[in-house]
Protein: Threonylcarbamoyl-AMP synthase
Amino acid sequence: DMTSSSLQILSDTEQDCAKAASVLRDGGLVAFPTETVYGLGADACNDTAVARIFESKGRPSFNPLIVHFPDVEAARAHVDWTDAAEDLAHAFWPGPLTFVLPRRAGSPISRLVSAGLNTLAIRVPAHPTAQTLLRAFGGPVAAPSANRSGQISPTKAAHVVDGLGDRVDAVLDGGACPVGLESTIVGLSDHPVLLRPGGVTEDQLAEVLGHHIAIRKNADAISSPGQLASHYAPDARVRLNATEWLPNEARLGFGDVECDLNLSEKEDLVEAAAHLFDYMHQLDATGATTIAVTPIPHHGLGIAINDRLTRAAAPRDDYSR
Ligand code: TXA
Ligand code: MG
Structure:
């Protein structure tokens, strides 16, 4: 019975992954590391377990979840596969890329996962701990990022514990997430469209697709609410493109600048992405009322970094938190 349990902290050993898999089998929630961010996992075929994800995140129930699989074969069984999916899976799976495809008739995945849409978001993560957990469990695992809805995504086990506490049954501690930004989401039901920038860049996608990917604008983004304006928000206000520091601000820098925390002194966007959420958590924890951020170049992974920063800086409303 998972309803009265308290939080178990588990290591990333095979034995502890097996324990975590049994928590999933009992309908419990397990936070686990992926190469992007920590996920809040539940048995995707168990309606009650999936409902507990929404409850523990405080997430609006219309915001659908990504389903995680150990390999391409397991994933494609639940959707109507396409040639573009085949090419992209070959190039980027396992890895930080999610596909949205029509849900296959007869898939046992809970309807709650896709929040009423006829599509399913699927991903094969590369992180060894995620792989061990998925294989030990042996079924699809629904997992949003393991944070309260609207707050900063977790890239360390401690972020999950701070944010969710015993709203989660177990946390697998696999250290810091190497990519540090959520997966890129592409819609593949029709011609490919970028729904959320992330760990795989537009240039990398274009190389495989043979053309630039269309980008869906915010206007009709309600089916991918990761695009809600004020997502990824710390408690502090966020001031972007700071070229000078104001008194009492927490200072987040990039490149050769004096600051409290530097995303990458050597201006490496991969390193900056890996640090982004952890440094936002750290600066938020200082109690500063504003976090100021120096400009981040707008190319490659910088596009996803700027996307998250822009959302963190957007005006807040209750709807998205
Ligand atoms: O890297 C990641 O993607 C992490 C790790 C844990 O896998 N997961 C993650 O999940 O970022 P979450 O729930 O924070 O973001 C999932 C995004 C949301 O913006 C959601 O709206 C979108 O995926 N999404 C899920 N299913 C969808 C669907 N059927 N159609 C369109 N968007 C969908
Ligand atoms: Mg999220």
In short: The first helix runs from residue 14 to 25. The mean pLDDT is 91. The chain is about 30% helix and 15% strand.
